[in-house]
């Protein structure tokens, strides 16, 4: 006889539905609690630059450009102004010291020279005439003194004779006193005459000295005017190459105007422009290097020009072992300018990422190499090849160093 079986609760259908529900709830819980919610972006790795983080010496240097210049350049300035009558040498010509380059004309200077020369000639004549006049006067004074001496001698004889006769009671007292007064008057006159002649002699010497001083000054002025006229002939002050001469026949030149320059070709230097950011770190003695004809040459800063123009200042660098053979004025070359000694550091190659992140974060690849994650970092010094890593990266890690411009704000890149 058939028996009714009890109806089972866990049928296959219910078991399947329950299992499905549990699976869905578990998936939702996993997604909610454990799944990676970070924003992602799929990119092509072939279009990225991936660089390793390394340990090595950090060499602090900057890349600059130097231009070859003569070791010494002499400015050619016009000592006197005038208009150009002759131009004997063109720019680029090799010249010798003392060689005539230009001839100028200045009528005003010529007139001043003639006036000064005329004045000097007049003073020479005045001096000669004064000396002649004083000589004649000296003779006349000597003659007067000689006449007085003769009269004085005669009066003394008369006085002595009258004194003797008066003593012997031969002549009267009146005759004796008359002879005495005549003698004393002549003696006093002779004394005054001697003093007068001495004064006139001293005055004559003073006149001569004054005239000689005035003549000497005038003659010096004549010499200066003569030298000024000679300066109208412009000559090369040194031997070298006349690199430029910016005048033409008929043009007018002012006193002190620069008309060109002469390059001393016995040596060369490099004139280098440096960004103003480094002005406090650049000083004479810093060294650098550059490549020329397949060889590396060392140079050293010899002078710093502190004036900043358009965000840059200039330095002169000289060759420590002599200028390279074959180097020419005006040639330019990239220079590696050392700013300090090398030190051991964690290094990250320079790349376009810095302009997008400011060096505050980078994308770092995981061990699988199939994704890169954003990570905060701290960078220190920089040279044209590497950044110094202070925090956030370890040697051996791989970092995307190309531009992040197209990655937006995504935290994970998947390849």
Word description of this protein:
Residues 142-185 form the CzcB-like alpha-helical hairpin domain. Residues 117-165, 189-228 form a coiled coil. The chain crosses the membrane at residues 15-35. InterPro entries: HH_CzcB-like, MdtA-like_C, RND_pump_MFP, UPF0194_transport. Residues 346-403 form the Multidrug resistance protein MdtA-like C-terminal permuted SH3 domain. There is one protein chain. This protein is of the alpha+beta class. Among the domains are: 40-59 and 343-414, conserved putative lor/sdh protein from methanococcus maripaludis s2 fold; 62-67 and 265-338, Efflux pump adaptor protein, beta barrel domain (Elongation Factor Tu (Ef-tu), domain 3, Beta Barrel); 108-225, Helix Hairpins. It contains four helices and 22 strands. The strands form four sheets. A six-stranded mixed beta sheet has the order 1-22-18-17-21-2, with no helix packed on it. Strands 4-11-14-13-12-15 form a six-stranded antiparallel barrel. Strand 17 (361-365) and strand 18 (371-376) form a beta hairpin. Helix 2 (107-167) runs antiparallel to helix 3 (173-230). The protein is rod-shaped. The model has no long low-confidence stretch (mean pLDDT 83).
């Amino acid at each position: 006889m058939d028996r009714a079986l009890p109806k089972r609760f866990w049928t296959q259908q219910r078991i399947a539905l329950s299992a499905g529900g549990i699976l869905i709830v578990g998936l939702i819980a996993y997604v909610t609690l454990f799944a990676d919610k970070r924003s992602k972006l799929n990119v092509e790795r072939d279009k990225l630059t991936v660089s390793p983080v390394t340990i090595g010496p950090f060499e602090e240097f900057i890349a600059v450009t130097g231009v070859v210049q003569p070791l010494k350049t002499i400015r050619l300035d016009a000592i006197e102004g005038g208009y150009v009558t002759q131009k004997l040498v063109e720019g680029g010509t090799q010249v010798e010291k003392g060689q005539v380059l230009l001839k100028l004309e200045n009528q005003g200077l010529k007139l001043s020279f003639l006036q000064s020369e005329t004045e000097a000639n007049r003073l020479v004549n005045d001096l000669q005439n004064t000396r002649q006049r004083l000589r004649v006067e000296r003779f006349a004074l000597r003659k007067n003194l000689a006449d007085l001496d003769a009269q004085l001698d005669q009066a003394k004889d008369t006085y002595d004779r009258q004194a003797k006769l008066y003593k012997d009671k031969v002549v009267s007292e009146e005759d004796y006193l008359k002879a005495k007064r005549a003698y004393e008057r002549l003696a006093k006159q002779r004394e005054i005459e001697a003093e007068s002649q001495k004064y006139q002699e001293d005055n004559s010497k003073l006149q001569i000295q004054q005239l000689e001083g005035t003549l000497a000054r005038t003659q010096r002025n004549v010499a200066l005017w003569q030298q000024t006229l000679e300066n109208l002939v412009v000559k090369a002050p040194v031997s070298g190459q006349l690199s430029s001469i910016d005048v033409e026949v008929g043009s007018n030149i002012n006193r002190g105007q620069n008309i060109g320059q002469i390059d001393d070709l016995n040596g060369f230097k490099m004139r280098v422009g440096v960004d103003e950011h480094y002005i406090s770190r650049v000083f004479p003695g810093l060294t650098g290097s550059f490549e020329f004809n397949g060889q590396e040459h060392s140079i050293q800063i010899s002078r710093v020009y502190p004036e900043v123009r358009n965000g840059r200042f200039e330095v002169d660098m000289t060759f420590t072992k002599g200028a390279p053979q074959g180097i020419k004025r005006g040639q330019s070359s990239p220079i590696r300018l050392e700013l300090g000694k090398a030190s051991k550091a964690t290094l990250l190659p320079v790349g376009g990422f810095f302009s997008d992140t400011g060096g505050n974060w980078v994308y770092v690849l995981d061990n699988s190499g199939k994704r890169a994650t954003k990570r905060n970092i701290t960078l220190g010094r920089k040279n044209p090849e590497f950044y110094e890593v202070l925090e956030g990266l370890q040697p051996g890690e791989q970092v995307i160093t190309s531009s992040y411009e197209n990655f937006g704000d995504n935290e994970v890149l998947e390849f």
